[in-house]
Amino acid sequence: xxxxxxxxxxxxxxxxxxxxxxxxxxxxxxxxxxxxxxxxxxxxxxxxxxxxxxxxxxxxxxxxxxxxxxxxxxxxxxxxxxxxxxxxxxxxxxxxxxxxxxxxxxxxxxxxxxxxxxxxxxxxxxxxxxxxxxxxxxxxxxxxxxxxxxxxxxxxxxxxxxxxxxxxxxxxxxxxxxxxxxxxxxxxxxxxxxxxxxxxxxxxxxxxxxxxxxxxxxxxxxxxxxxxxxxxxxxxxxxxxxxxxxxxxxxxxxxxxxxxxxxxxxxxxxxxxxxxxxxxxxxxxxxxxxxxxxxxxxxxxxxxxxxxxxxxxxxxx
Length: 317
What we know:
Layout: E1 9-15, H1 19-36, E2 40-46, H2 53-61, E3 67-72, H3 78-88, E4 93-96, H4 108-118, E5 122-129, H5 135-152, E6 159-166, H6 167-174, H7 183-190, E7 194-200, H8 213-227, H9 230-258, H10 266-298, E8 306-310
Parallel strand pairs: 1-2, 1-4, 2-3, 5-7
Antiparallel strand pairs: 3-8, 4-6, 5-6
């Protein structure tokens, strides 16, 4: 039984090509939120899906009176769709979850209970098992988490986007205006009190994942460049090492020349050119990555564009 006087809970769900499972997901999510006894709203963001996602949302809005739906003008990516949802959520607590079935709605009552009983600002669901995934995807995720931990000191191993944030935490998150958004890293950077809930990731409810290798790589580069400047320092350190090496090698060559023995070996020269050239290209690539982030930030374009929206008929249900 819901209490209209209780704090409002917002459930934010970004969607991209999830039409096949959308009705079942909304039904399961509302059923689990009903068990909490709290008033709630659903804030669903269609990230420019080319399928029937928006048509289904429009139909469901006539049945679910506390459904707020946003349709982005194109596919901006999950991170920016999350921004849209967070900026439009009104709840005293905001729950973020995926709509593909890999974040089980059955966990919602426990997340809300922990928020109420512990007073934590962030209740996050942590993966004990990653679920069905290719070996390359698993190894890529492991490598990314290790690099992020070593470079930025942020440990996100097992952490998912499935979490509850108090209004204080959400407001603090919204004060970060960057366009290169990495939701998990930004949430961890905030600090606040955390409580964790373990869960096993089930298989997708239907369809295939939209996280291709290029998409994962782009997110990884965003996460590393947004939270660490150590790659830029690597360029400086490598330059100093090669400068030191060149001094010793130059002295060695001069001594041999004075002794009447010149340094010979075409292979040695080619090898040195390849090493130095590769280092220069790698260094330019690292610098270019950071310059690209700066370029995107200074343009000050909006994070997303909304083409259509549906407002709830009973937002405090």
